[in-house]
Amino acid sequence: MRQGTALTNWDKLSSPVAGLSLHHFTDANGVNGIIDKKEIWATHIKYMNDQLEYKYGLDLLHKVITDEISKEKDPELAAVFSEVLTFEKKFEGSQVFCVSFCERNDLYNLWKIYGSDGNGFCLSFNAKELSMEIENRRGPDLAKKAINKNTPGVYWVGPKKVLYSRVSQEQYIIDYLNDIRTVYAQYHKQSAELNLVMRFSSIGYISEFLFCFKSDFYEGEKEWRILGLFKSPSEKRKGGMTKKVGIDLLAAKSCIKPYAKLRLSNFDAQLESITRGPVTSMLYPDQDGIRWLLERNNLDIPIKDSEVKFR
What's the pTM? Predict the structure, then answer.
């Protein structure tokens, strides 16, 4: 368990329990790539289906911290809180990427929005196995890795449960600020160490909260997320141009989406079943295509057809 009231409570609430399955919706190209390559693409947080999701958490952070600054009597600590408000600027070369899952799988709205309008597939994963995959990637000395400009890579977190209660969201931010107060009391005379702690907190820890906060309008989805904080240096090219190292690009319907690859090293234990969308099941009653895909990858898991009546 990580230190700090906010992170301790967050880990307790948002970590998956044994027996939980999480479901990822995708199209035919997606399911083919995930199974063949044993990897999932994490979309840049600003390019999610609802672009306001990114802004929601940042706006809430600004509101809560601004309120706390107005009540803070210590001007130096108020200045530290003000630094947290520059959260976006602290990313510098870093980017946040997200893979979404749902606790529910065979619902009309989910197929409509996330399952390629009923033509896609739903992959069901063992949540604890996914969690173990992520934990195995998290080595020691994460603070230095997260802010070292010369260290490319991804700091993966999750799966984490999305929180929809506005009251609870605000309380987590307040708990986080109280943790900063504790750190400040211990290290305020050691500016270099304080700066390290604060910068890692702002970049690594806040992202777990903000990008797992959503409006209660979406509560029915019961979403979970794997987040990747990607530290990518810019590679200088001829003519003064730069290239982001390690970030891939996908041509979408109306934009070019940045994404990061999450390689799943224990795929056989993680993938539990595949459900074919309602339109796919209706148009192609036999399951030959998806079955041959699984056989080619030596996977023996159930193939299901959606029971949703799709119009």
Answer: 0.84
